[in-house]
Amino acid sequence: MTIASKTRENLERAFHAEAGVYFKYTLWADRARKAGHHAVGALFDSVARNEWAHAKIWYKRLNGEMDTGEALLAAAGGEHHEWSEMYAQWASEAQQEGEQAIARLFRQVAAIEASHEEKYRRMAQLLQSGEEFACAQPVRWVCANCGYVHEGTQPPAVCPVCEHAQGYFARQ
Question: Domain Ferritin-like diiron: where (predicted)?
């Protein structure tokens, strides 16, 4: 689907605005609860869910529906941009302005983003090869829901502790 350039720009701006507001409201909800204002926290959470829904609407209009493999590769590309260009440039600029602590934080976060790229690319490779839930040598599989650990060449079809599906297991 081709979207006119100004409309596309507005969709991108709408997505980024809604996603940013979702984050702020979620953060403010936590702060309100910590300060003893649980009703205020619930209000922020409620509106944050609406903002999340709005962000999803704009994102889908911009990007369509991606399958899981496509989403993993898109995420890897985004992480690559963050660590190799965005944070690298910002660290350099902060350094030039004498902001050593912020430059260090940008470099440290860049290293984390590089590890995210690696994880996404590895998972995309596992999906493509059909090895997401199978491997030649036994490994530890951990249930993301309850923490149950299973050793083997594949995780159980269903977690024996919490009964969640195999899709909740990841290699440790």
Answer: 1-131
**Residue burial 21-52, b: 16+ Cβ < 10 Å; e: rest:** bbeebbebbeebbeeeeeeebeebbebbeebb
Report the C-alpha gap between 112 and 126 in whole angstroms.
21
> How is domain 139-171 classified at the CATH fold level?
Rubrerythrin, domain 2 (2.20.28)
Question: What's the chain's average pLDDT?
Answer: 97
> Tell me, what's the pLDDT at 1?
62
Report the C-alpha gap between 8 and 64 in whole angstroms.
Answer: 13
pTM: 0.80
Q: Where are the domains of the chain?
A: 5-63, 68-129, 139-171
3-state secondary structure of 153: coil
Architecture of domain 68-129: Up-down Bundle (1.20)
